[in-house]
From TrEMBL:
PANTHER family with a match to the protein in the record: FATTY ACYL-COA REDUCTASE CG8306-RELATED (PTHR11011:SF45), MALE STERILITY PROTEIN 2-RELATED (PTHR11011)
Keyword Cell membrane carried by entry: no
Domain SET: 1-43
UniProt entry tagged with the keyword Translocase: no
Organism: Cephalotus follicularis
Protein's UniProt name: Fatty acyl-CoA reductase
Keywords: Lipid biosynthesis, Lipid metabolism, NADP, Oxidoreductase
EC number(s) recorded for this UniProt protein: 1.2.1.84
One GO process term, biological-process aspect: long-chain fatty-acyl-CoA metabolic process
Catalyzed reactions: a long-chain fatty acyl-CoA + 2 NADPH + 2 H(+) = a long-chain primary fatty alcohol + 2 NADP(+) + CoA
Length: 676
């Protein structure tokens, strides 16, 4: 029974947790949203009615409203977004009967009382009850602010020690109270269907699931192949035998391949085909079994042919959503997109979904009559991409289709064909989803793993990597970039962890709707280009690459240019100096001419790279990640350790110099040019 002062002391619409020492009853309601209230109310019967204590959670602030605290301090507000974990004070406030302190993102409330007094707690959590006998020492709530309540009779020293003990020890029995989202529990037994499974990010995703949740259900992986035997061969060579899976290989030993083949099911198909190209009987089986669809298939070439990019990035999601509607058990559709679908938007860019026909170019124009602005009709764009190739000569169709893609993208406010077609894919998903829950993950530039399964793993050249490698090999000593601009980078393992957290949260909720998560660093932990250039120099100065004769390649400090004219002039000077053209005598005219051709080709390649990257090296947008931060705050401390994605915690100097570049040299260069 609630105390008599409930009606006038607490908002009846708020989430309430009551503790009464007399009969030790606790009612807990979870999933607190931003702006909602959470009151922790308790009564010490020995002190009478006026001794009631209340903790109020509202938004991201905690308020201690015991009588002493109200008169002495008012409200205590904590904001885990703006204060780095290592900056938190150990003790924030103390009164006779009420001790509040912070530890990372948790706020702990230690009640005073007679030593030796025991209290039991019973809870109702999501309509489930669990009993905790009097000998148990703590109960923990890890929702929306991670409030931790400890019972009477514990000293500050005891609490300080307990705060450092990971969850799950023998003294804790209310598992539900510290489950956070319940990621592992949710993923157990779930059946996945993953497209783009042989790609970089999807492989990290698959490895993480199999390593942390080995009792996950089957994972159907869509593989482009002529038949099942060819698909199985690709599965083995590109996934099962990949170095990325070495931790699993060590764990399972001789039974590794059997375990992988028991979990991974190759599916012959192609997202570009209307029925995904899946054999009918298998498609029917999958439609009855699949719980979660993850679309990681994409063409990421910035200036890809318009017809090719639109086929995979725009029509592909449509085909997959069509299949999703046939899945009788489907709980979630997850689209892996990119933060740069926000196109040429500037400033702080929020995590908002696209609606069909959204047009970024129209957002910039205020003084033109709407009827004169371009209207984005996706079906027209698909038809244009399909039909235009018929109008070009065979020997020029590839180049013309590339030019068409860039032209259409820039007309509507996007910087290139890749992000434009990905944005249209998001629009089509939103238009088709109906009552299917959808999550859109928008990472920025995905680079090598930070921690898991081991630091520095990557595959292929990501966005900034050609520049990093050319510089280290002495082939590029400068680049076209805003020195004060920001390169928005996120490690692949953090993207995967955020994706799994989002899957568990929204798959469990089963609410129709679309949720967007931007996994990005530009707002919370920006990596400035000027700092990146310095870190590259420091690394290669300490650990130089070697030339074909085994001699170390010494690189100068990287020069940053804000105009193409200055950059082009620098390229010519640098190429001529490296080739030795100025030292050529007239007797070596033939050799001189050959070297000039080589220099010209080198300069043109660097200028082409600069042109393609210019929209990103001078990008004016910064990606807000409030939704992602709230997702992280809803996790338990144990989940944050196992599935962490706090980009604010990245030490860029350590990551770039000790993780990413060594990973590039080991996994992409395969050790070529490494110093002995």
């Amino acid at each position: 029974m609630l105390p008599s002062f409930y009606n006038h002391d607490c908002d009846p619409n708020a989430h309430i947790i009551w503790i009464e020492n007399a009969d030790a009853k606790l009612k807990a309601l979870r999933d607190i949203e931003e702006g909602e209230e959470l009151r922790i109310c308790y009564i010490d019967a020995s002190m009478g009615h006026n001794a009631r204590q209340t903790l109020l959670f509202q938004g991201f602030g905690f308020q201690c409203s015991c009588l002493r605290c109200l008169s002495g301090m008012g409200a205590l507000f904590l904001n885990s977004f703006s204060i780095a974990p290592n900056k938190f004070a150990r003790v924030s406030y103390k009164c006779d009967r009420h001790l509040l302190w912070m530890r990372k993102s948790s706020v702990h409330c230690q009640l005073g009382g007679n030593a030796g007094r025991s209290s039991g707690i019973s809870s109702v959590l999501k309509e489930m009850s669990t009993s905790l006998s009097s000998e148990h020492s703590s109960a923990t709530l890890m929702d929306a602010g991670s409030l931790v309540l400890s019972p009477n009779g514990k000293s500050q020293a005891e609490i300080a020690v307990k705060d450092l003990v990971p969850y799950g020890g023998p003294t804790t029995s209310i598992v539900e109270l510290q489950d956070g989202i319940g990621i592992v529990k949710y993923l157990r037994g779930k059946v996945f269907f993953i497209t783009g499974a042989t790609g970089f990010l999807a492989k990290v995703f698959i490895e993480k699931i199999l390593r942390t949740v080995p009792d996950v259900g089957k994972i159907f992986v869509l593989i482009k192949a002529k038949n099942r035997e060819a698909a199985m061969e690709r599965l083995k060579s590109e996934i099962i035998n990949a170095e990325l899976f070495k931790c699993l290989r060590q764990t399972y030993g001789k039974s590794y391949q059997a375990f992988m083949l028991r979990k991974l099911v190759p599916v012959v198909g192609n997202v570009c085909e209307s029925n995904l190209g899946i054999e009918e009987d298998l498609a029917n089986v999958m439609a009855k079994e699949v719980d979660i669809i993850v679309n990681s298939a994409a063409n990421t070439t910035f200036d890809e042919r318009y017809d090719v990019a639109i086929d995979i990035n725009t029509r592909g999601p449509c085909h997959l959503m069509g299949f999703a509607k046939q899945c009788t058990k489907l709980k979630l559709f997850l689209q892996v997109s990119t933060a740069y679908v926000n196109g040429q938007r500037q400033g702080k860019i929020m995590e908002k979904p696209f609606c069909i026909g959204d047009n970024i170019a129209r957002e910039f124009v205020r003084d033109i009559t709407p009827r004169f602005l371009p209207i984005l009709d996706i079906q027209n764009e698909i038809e244009l991409a399909t039909n235009s190739k018929e109008n070009f000569e065979e020997n020029s169709v590839a180049q013309k289709m590339k030019e068409l893609g860039l032209q259409r993208a820039r007309k509507y406010g996007w910087q290139d064909t890749y992000v434009f077609t990905k944005a249209m894919g998001e629009m089509m998903i939103d238009n088709m989803r109906g009552d299917i829950p959808v999550v859109v993950i928008r990472p920025s530039v995905i680079e090598s793993t930070c921690n898991e399964p081991f630091p520095g793993w990557m595959e292929g050249n990501r966005m900034m990597d050609p520049i990093v490698l050319y510089y280290g090999k002495g082939q590029l000593s400068g680049f076209l970039v805003d020195p004060n601009g920001v390169l928005d980078v996120v490690p692949a393992d953090m993207v995967v962890n955020a994706t799994l957290a989002a899957i568990a949260r929204h798959g469990m909720a089963k609410k129709p709707g679309i949720n967007v998560y931007q996994i990005a660093s530009s707002v919370v932990n920006p990596l400035v280009f000027e700092d990146l250039a310095r870190l590259l120099y420091e690394h290669y100065n300490s650990f130089p690459c070697v030339d074909s004769k085994g001699r170390p390649i010494h690189v100068p400090s990287m020069k940053l240019f804000s105009s193409m004219e200055d950059f082009s002039a620098h390229l010519w000077r640098d190429a001529i100096q490296r080739s030795g053209l100025t030292a050529m005598s007239t007797s070596n005219a033939k050799l001189s001419q050959k070297l000039e051709v080589i220099c010209r080709k080198s300069v043109e390649q660097a200028k082409y790279l600069a042109n393609i990257y210019e929209p990103y090296t001078f990008y004016g947008g910064r990606f807000d990640n409030s939704n992602t931060q709230r997702l992280m705050d809803s996790m338990s401390e144990g989940e944050k350790m196992k599935f962490g994605f706090d980009v604010g915690s990245i030490d860029w100097k350590d990551y770039i110099t000790n993780v990413h570049i060594p990973g590039l040299r080991r996994h992409v260069m395969k050790g070529r040019g490494m110093c002995g």
